[in-house]
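Chapter review. Work through the record for NAD(P)H-dependent oxidoreductase before attempting the end-of-chapter questions.
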Amino acid sequence: MSKKVLFIVGSLRQNSFNKQMAQIAEEMIGDRAEVSYLDYADHPLFNEELEAQGVPAMDRIRKELEAADLVWIFSPVYNWAIPGTVKNLLDWASRSLDPSDHAAASSIHDKFFTVSSLANGESPKAVFKHYRELLPFIRTNVIGEFAGGPI
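Structure tokens for NAD(P)H-dependent oxidoreductase:
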């Protein structure tokens, strides 16, 4: 069975530098894994009241995350930090799948994650620091050295 790699492109801009980097990575992976891109533009800002009601967009996103063997984030840097869109996505995804047990597993619990970034100057180093702190906190497994550079 082929490994499944889910790409999260942190910029919603159609031809962003990080989207272009993801496309190059997909070409390099070739047929060694099945690559898909997470479409998350329609998910709402995190809100516990919405969470209690259920959000169809997040149900779809959680299924895609659960099916992945690896999640690879291609992240721009916004004000020396993780883009709000990605942080919001991770806030939703890190929530327990069991509403009665907040310590229960989430859709990304123990999932393998890595990050790449293209951004101005030294800013990829700054965003890598944020991801290195956040990803283990939300109970994911960070693998490899984060790769990136200036544009």
